[in-house]
Design goal:
By secondary structure, this protein is mostly helical. It is built from 17 helices and two strands. The chain has one domain: Amino acid/polyamine transporter I (Up-down Bundle), CATH 1.20.1740.10.
Length: about 475
């Protein structure tokens, strides 16, 4: 039951529960098992280099988010932050963009759950000779479960996310240390050893090419900012939300650089090793099988599936909170309805879940795509949109902190967000120019641009709605620091 007259979201989350949604949406367990393959297709063995560059870019972006959430707490995340600092039009575009990112990442993670889940069932012999639709069936179950958990109190959902991800990350780290130990001790399969060339760019690979691989690094970090959508449900938002985001970003950087380095060395830095790396169905799962035993590979594959599900849940939770906030300010009684039983935005959650399902179904039917095709394409589209949103949020932070007439940060700190914008824009540029000549990848930047354009057209086509949203943002006590 929903109640459009309910007061609002329930404020009952502590710092660990806010960390839960950021960690779950970043999904380090899932990301470590599949995202580095996309990077390796462009930079070869230098996967850790691309992830290190992505870490620097994310930390530069995190500066703006941390500063903004120290002053604001709003369920709309960038919609509220950007709207309060640079105006309602840009706020709506930023909010619309982040909703799009989370929706496409919902496609990514539901398909990843299907891919890893199907492989796990095959490994344990429970479902052999699977049809091509196996990944879709398991992905559909995952999306349905994500909807269910997203409509119960967020306190329960975020606890589940943090617990599941912590277990799987620990398992991956243990495996990585075992692999590293065998590489150091000279007992690795095929006589492989520690090879520091993973931290150097292969000859003939230009710097611009490296940034094509960096997009998968951003994909792996994407979601560190998701805690901001719980600003109205956190007990101490102006302290806990910034700590949750910064802590998640720092952990992600250390984790991804270390794990990807071990993965590449574990497969080998030769041409054959890189090919095996790219074709792996589960990077840490295959390494666990090869270096320890089949049982550990099977467990890691299951852990990756659970991690992907947790990420799917976080996508639904984060985007539904943003849709709720925009619907509330725009006067939509349906989107702003809160369940009187659970205190969650049920209608907004239902809309987001339906959008994810429709995209997957149409992509599969019209594009004749397989789960991995949708995983890859949705990841690129969502990340391109996300990078554009990060640019808007960083511009808002610069204006609020340094150009508002009120001293809110040391003057020299302005260099941090400026460098962040340069990194973000260059990453966007290298992933659009030169434009893909053919193949499915040609459509990815087009779809991302269309999604952002729809939001931009909407704010100019409906000035009355934009004015109403602006008035709501200015009057919102959660954004009072912007006055």
């Amino acid at each position: 039951m929903t109640d459009s007259g309910a007061k609002g979201l329930v404020k009952n989350l502590n710092i660990w529960e806010t960390i839960g949604i950021s960690v779950a949406l970043m999904a380090p367990s899932m990301a470590a098992n599949i995202n580095p393959q996309g990077t390796a297709t462009t930079v070869g063995r230098a996967v850790p280099v691309a992830f290190a560059l992505a870490t620097i870019g994310v930390l530069l972006v995190a500066y703006g988010f941390v500063r903004l959430t120290q002053n604001f707490h709003h369920a709309g995340s960038v919609y509220g932050f950007v709207g309060a600092t640079t105006g309602p039009r840009s706020g709506v575009v930023a909010g619309w963009g982040l909703i799009g990112t989370y929706i496409f990442y919902g496609c990514v993670t539901s398909m990843a759950t299907g891919i890893f889940g199907a492989k796990f069932l095959d490994q344990i012999g429970l479902w052999k000779n699977q049809p091509d639709t196996a990944g879709f069936l398991i992905g559909a179950i995952a999306l349905a479960l994500a909807y269910f958990f997203a409509t119960v109190p967020a306190r329960n959902g975020t606890r589940l996310l943090l617990t599941v991800e912590a277990i799987t990350v620990i398992l991956i780290l243990i495996t990585a240390f075992v692999v590293l130990g065998k590489l150091i001790g000279g007992s690795a399969p095929g006589g492989l050893g520690v090879d520091m060339s993973v931290f150097s760019i292969p000859s003939g690979t230009g710097g611009s090419t490296v940034f094509l691989g960096v997009v998968f690094g951003f994909l792996s970090f994407a979601g560190f900012e998701a805690a901001a959508t719980l600003g109205e449900e956190a007990s101490n938002p102006r302290k806990d939300i910034p700590r949750a985001m910064l802590g998640t970003a720092i952990f992600g950087g250390l984790y991804f650089v270390f794990v990807t380095a071990v993965e590449v060395m574990g497969f080998g830095t030769s041409e054959e090793g890189v090919k095996a790396f790219i074709s792996s169905g589960s990077l840490m799962g295959d390494l666990g099988t090869s270096y320890i035993g089949s049982w550990i590979g099977t467990i890691i594959t299951l852990g990756a599936a659970v991690s992907a599900f947790g990420c799917c849940l976080a996508c639904v939770v984060g985007s539904s909170r943003m849709a709720y906030a925009m619907g509330r300010d725009g006067g939509s009684s349906s989107l702003s309805a809160i369940s009187s039983k659970n205190g969650t935005p049920t209608n907004a959650t239902r809309l987001i879940t339906a959008a994810i399902a429709i995209i997957v179904i149409l992509w599969a039917l019209i594009g004749n795509a397989k789960p991995f095709d949708i995983f890859l394409g949705s990841g690129v589209i969502g990340t391109l949109i996300l990078v554009a949103v990060y640019v808007l949020a960083t511009i808002g932070a610069i204006k609020f902190l340094f150009l508002s007439g009120v001293k809110r940060a040391a003057t020299w700190e302005i260099i941090i967000p400026i460098v962040g914008i340069v990194v973000l824009i260059y990453t966007l540029y290298r992933n659009v120019i030169p434009f893909p000549a053919s193949g499915p990848s040609r459509m990815y930047p087009i779809v991302a641009a269309i999604w952002l354009l729809v939001g931009l057209v909407a704010v100019y086509a409906r000035p009355a709605m934009t004015k109403k949203l602006g008035e709501k943002l200015l009057a919102d006590e959660k954004l009072s620091a912007a006055r």
